Amino acid sequence: MAQLKFETALSRLEETVSVLEKGDLPLEEALKVFEEGIRLSKTCMKTLSEAEKKIAVLIEGKDGKKKARPFTLAEDNSAKKDAPNG
Question: Does this model's pTM top 0.70?
Answer without folding.
Answer: no
